[in-house]
Amino acid sequence: MAESLTSRPTLAAADAQQAHAHIDADTNTGISNTKLGMWLFLASECLLFGGLITTYLLYKHPLEGPTPHEIFDIPFTSTSSFVLLMSSLTMVLAVSAIERGEHQRMRVWIGATAALGATFIAGQIYEFTVFVREGLGFTTSRFSSAFYTLTGFHGIHVTIGIIMLVSLVLLSLRGKIPEHRAETVEIVGLYWHFVDVVWVVIFAVVYLIPS
Amino acid sequence: MQRLPKIVRVLAVISFTLVVVLFAALIVNSFQNAGKPLTTLTPQGPSSESIQKLLVPVTSIAAVVFVGVLGAALLISWKFRERKDSDPDEFPEQVHGKTALEIGWTILPALILAGIAVGTVMTLINLNREEPNSINVQVAGQQWWWQYKYDVNNDGNFDGPEDITTATEMVIPAGRPIQVTTTSNDVIHSFWIPGLNGKRDAVPGLRNPLKLQADEPGIFRGQCTEFCGLSHANMRMLVRAVSTSDYDAWVKNQLKDHAADPTDPTALAGKKVWQALCAQCHVIDGINDVKMKETKPPLVSGVAPDLTHLMTRGTFAGSIFNLYEPVGSDGSPLPMGDVAAAGDPGAALTGGKVNTATVNRVTLEAWLRNAPALKPMYPQGGRGMPNLNLTEEQIDQLVAFLETLN
Amino acid sequence: MALTEDRPLALPSGGSDDGYTPTGVFTRPTAETGARSWFTTVDHKKIGIMYGAAAIFFLIIGGSEALLIRMQLWAPRGTLLSANLYNQVYTMHGTTMVFLVVMPIGAAFANYLIPLQIGARDVAFPRINAFSFWAFLFGGVFINSSWLLGGGADGGWFMYAPNSGVIFSPTHGIDFWNLGLIITGIASLTGAVNLIVTVLNMRAPGMTLMRMPIFTWMALVSQFLLLFAIPVLTSAQVLLMLDRGFHANFFNVSKGANPLLWEHLFWIFGHPEVYLMILPAFGLVSDILPTFARKPIFGYPFIVFSGIAIGFMGWGVWAHHMFVSGIGPISVTTFSLTTMFIAVPTGVKILNWTATMWGGKLKFSSPMLFSIGLVTMFTIGGLSGVMHSVAPMDSQQTDTYFIVAHFHYVLFGGAFFGFMGGFYFYWPKAFGYMLNESLGKANFWLMLLGFNLTFAPMHVLGLQGMSRRIYTYDPGYGFEFWNKVATIGAFTLASSVALFVVNIFYSKVKAKNLPPVGPDPWDGRTIEWMVPSPTPAYNFDPIPTVTRVDDFWYRKYGETKDGKLVRIASTAEVAQQRTDGKGIHLPSPSYWPLVLAFGLPIAAYGLIFSLWLALVGAIIVVGAIYGWVMEPPDDPDKAHDDHGPDAHASDGGDAVVADPVDAVKEVETVG
Question: Which SS3 state, helix, strand or coil, does residue B227 take?
Fold first, then answer.
């Protein structure tokens, strides 16, 4: 570490020069603050879902009431999962549209993404009502509490994502997403993809892995 | 350097001296464990002794390290302090680090810890080893007392007719290993007899193992150590280690049901009161045990202490009160005055006659008069003994009846 | 708290001079001085100061609770508090001290110092920063409001299930605890994201990671710990909330629930929590010791990497809180070994600090005394920690007063001594006047005495069998003497804290007759000492270019090959002058962080008392997010024009401009 004796009186001048030179690189990492912030937030979300998924795994065998095996309608949920996955594709198309400056096309794809997400949520609500009718209330068993909490928590995330997408469309219509703010769409996209990936994990853990 | 006001310098000296004196006094005091019934530092069973064998070297290493760090800090502070006459433009040698040294003092503590780790693992293996010929006891915590079930016939079931259910006090033969299984009927408690072994949590829905063994006959006290609600502080345990022959006699007596009605008319009236008011929650074998197995009592935990052989115990109410004298010096309904001399049931322990002259009637009556006043409980929530608003006559009758439960 | 409001501030922002006319409700506030400015500020320094002030307010509450506990235990069968009240008081004491005192003091230093130490104008998301503070404050007030609304939580700060269920704790205390900590958790999480992005993205030119001051490093590690630990606690608290409020079965043993689930989730959060509380103090000490030894920190990379190692290893040791819970001998052995070896990086730190002092020219100013106090007192806590890592010994010591002694040596002897050192060290930087040295030294010695009198006897009490969390003990157990000593110690400790508060005001009055304190009162090493004291709103003008560790020191001194130090410039030559800050773009104040944060406790009260009120809270939250998103940037285009050399390095990225993602992200964590 020992550096040789250096003369430093010109440093203040160097500071000023360097600051000018620095203008091009906005951040140290090259990733914008908001995008990095979103990545960190999603990393944190992993742990939140991790806690809930662990809880579900611990409680997936109920002592009473319907078992997962008895009530799950795998073809139905597979279809709605497919719908949600497709929404990631439309999201990618939306981001690519805004990057090319095609606002109208971006709005269409975002609208499609929101619609697919809403279809998934509608499917989830339908599924829940069927389960409740078959005797699986929220308080029925340890399995039911864990199941509704995990999937419901995910559903809330999707819903918030839909609200964000709709807001994007409205903002875009009002011209509030100019070119240099295109990254906003990408960041909402990050969130949306994350919610999709989490669903893949939940779908595998809850519906597919045999008890 | 500006000179400090004298008072600050005096304060520094006083403070430093007092801290040194305090540390010395604490070290000396940790060797004085007589009259401290809950101390962990005078082990009296194989398990606690093996823990002590680990404690002594580990604590010594820790003490040496601390003295080293403290000594170094003080020495360096003294040796390298800025002198009053020093040249303000003179600076110490600018050392940024010495990699070899740092690697050295990364490895050195790792080696010391590796040594401790070996001892730890060996002790853990030792503590978890199953002992042959051990007695199986299930210890169940509930707010705020302990229930003990003995698998006397060793069939793996604690509730057979050949098995014992008792409360508050655990009787064990000295020199023989006891395999305890802890569990709970409501919240998490922790079963801890520091003289015999470390603690083990009593978790509802789980069965956790713990070995106990006393070298010699004696009284071993404990205290619940997992916070369990309102009266956590008043949830104590007492283990009575007795000779093998006494233990056998105790088991034989415990297996007996309450047989005939008491002859004394007061006690007989007391039995009627008991059946009318107490039998909803408490059990006496031969009176309401069959009925209680069918209907769960209205308590959160589902049980109240079994009273079949109440007078064979030296304490009651979660081991906070002596059932026999001595009591508090002023004779008032106090918890145990002298903790070490727990109320001794004497001959009653093994089924002999209850010495009614030494029964701590004052506290027992006060308890029956208004239990929640002596020990904080939530009887309105089904947790703990309620105030039954008994008349003085009923209390006298009840005590007379309870005194027959040997 | 003495909050200086007389600092010159940057250019008036917003307003009409740039031709932008804001509309109606979405006008950004413009006041930058005066009482109102504190409510709308987004300045990291003001927010840092408010964190500190709020933490000291809660310290007085938590400290009073501690004194009540000590008075109750003064003698056997104390009657000051009922069993019920005692359980609430000790629960709230632990909760307050952990979540509302130690964590926010760490946040206070991190907020104030990180941008200054890395050469930034502000944090990455100034409005989110303000939101974090207000959410923390309202969460803390919300938890404490339970005292007036039916009593505090009574399940211990660890809130083990099933004792935390409605059957066993039917009052609302635990609901307040649970929802309040979810709110402060949101605050911590947004704060963590903010500070991590700040450190990773906003360093001055030349400020590489391995040139950062150690405080910034340690704060960075602890923010990462927060980022990953808080959501685990939140998930557990959501389960508890659903159990208590909506009859779910997560901790209902009769439906097959396993109470150890809560213990695992709580301690997966809880142990990293311990390290994230102590690491900022380690950082402060690592910056203070070299300053007063006048030589560099010994082994900068070792200090940094041991901090990172502690951060990583902190995730693999949680079950040492559960050695006696029945997790099985294999788990006990594993966690016993992992816990033991976390002592290695901690030991490295202690030895490096000692080596930093070795051969130095030690000046025993108050910050130095507190730092040496940390080195020695924390060592006791660290060593008793090693003793607990030995699982068989822990089976005797856990849940006794020995543990109480241990973690107070860590959190008070460690974290709090470090914070006290930090207060004395950075007071002139934040407020422009020095704290009185004589009172400071008296403060130190009184605190050292009080601290040891209070907590050292608890080691022996614990080893001799005194259980934790008991509201009473009987005579005959031999607990009387040391409990009396501890109670006397607690009052001594309280008087030392009072002396600190007295010092703040005394020094402020005295400072009027003293020459203004310069930028660099301690002959400091890191670049925060370049800027005038108190720090101007714009921090640096211009942003410095960093060339090495302790950059500011080497602007003053040169070092020869054989380690000799030669002064090459006076402080006055290299320190920055206070400028008018013209041309520096700073984020404008905003109402919305305050409004958004205010909606959270309203919603939480609603969840407890009436769902209609919850709806009101939700409307406030949603409205605030809308307002936040729609809020005009005060300076819509300037940030992207070249109107000053520092505009881009300073503007905190796009966050200064209204950004819907930031706002929605916070709803996320509410959900």
Answer: coil
Of B221, B191, B219, B227, nearest in space to B349 by CA: B219
Q: Are residues B306 and B327 in the same domain?
A: yes
Which residues on adjacent β-strands are paired with residue B242? B173
For C367-389, the pLDDT digits (tens) are: 999 999 999 999 999 999 999 99
In terms of residue numbers, what domain contains B57? 6-27+38-83+97-128
Chains touching A, CB cut-off 8 Å, 3+ pairs: B, C
Instruction: Give the SS3 label for residue A1.
Output: coil
User: What CATH code is carried by the domain that includes residue B49?
Assistant: 1.10.287.90
Give the C-alpha separation, A200 to A202, whole Å. 6
Q: The tokens of A17 are what? A: 């020069």
Are C657 and C632 within 8 A, CB to CB? no
**B96 contacts chain A (CB < 8 A):** yes
Residues 6+ away with beta carbon under 8 Å from C3? C38, C49, C50, C53
β-bridge partners, C467: C400
Kindly indicate the confidence band of residue A19, based on its pLDDT and cuts at 50, 70 and 90: very low
Confidence class for position C6, pLDDT limits 50, 70, 90:
very low
Q: What is the pLDDT of residues B259-293, one digit of tens each?
A: 788 999 999 999 999 999 999 899 999 998 888 87
How large is the ipTM? 0.95
Q: Is residue B116 situated within a structural domain?
A: yes
Q: How confident is the model at residue B161 (pLDDT cuts 50, 70, 90)?
A: confident
Nearest to B15 among C337, C393, C448 (CB): C448
Give the CATH number for residue B389: 2.60.40.420
| Interval C150-196: pLDDT, tens | 999 999 999 999 999 999 999 999 999 999 999 999 999 999 999 99
Q: Which is nearest to C260 in space by CA: C189, C331, C154, C182?
A: C331
Q: Do C348 and B105 touch (CB under 8 A)?
A: yes
Q: Are residues B219 and B261 in the same domain?
A: yes
* Cα within 13 Å of Cα(C578), Cβ side: 14
Q: DSSP letter for C319, please.
A: G
Q: How far apart are CA B241 and CA B219, in angstroms?
A: 6
What are the structural domains of chain A? 27-208 (1.20.120.80)
Does residue B133 belong to the interface with chain A, where contact is any CB pair within 8 Å?
Answer: no
Cα(C396)–Cα(C323) distance, rounded to whole angstroms? 11
Residue B32 belongs to a domain: no
Residue among B120, B207, B363, B383 with most chain C CBs within 10 A, to mutate: B120
Residue of A nearest to B99 (CA): A1
- For chain C, which residues make up each domain, given as ranges? 41-589
Q: Which residue has the tokens 């030669």?
A: C566
CATH of domain C41-589: 1.20.210.10
| Total of domains in chain B | 2
B228 and B347 in a single domain? The answer is: yes
Alpha-carbon distance of B333 to B330, in angstroms, equals 9
B45 plus B59 within the same structural domain: yes
Q: Does a structural domain hold residue B317?
A: yes
Cβ separation of C360 and B80 shorter than 8 Å? yes
Amino acid identity of C633?
P
Q: Same domain for B135 and B65? A: no
Kindly state whether residues B120 and B140 are assigned to the same domain.
no
How confident is the model at residue B333, as a pLDDT?
46
**Which amino acid makes up residue B395?**
I
Chains with ≥3 CB–CB distances under 8 Å to B: A, C
A165 touching chain C per CB within 8 A = no
Task: Give contacts of B 313-352 with A, CB under 8 A.
Answer: none
Per the CB < 8 A criterion, the answer to whether C663 and C631 are in contact is no
Integer Cα distance of C613 and A64 in angstroms? 36
Q: Is C125 exposed, middle or buried (0-12, 13-18, 19+ CB in 10 A)?
A: buried
Give the other-Cβ count within 10 Å of B42's Cβ.
Answer: 15
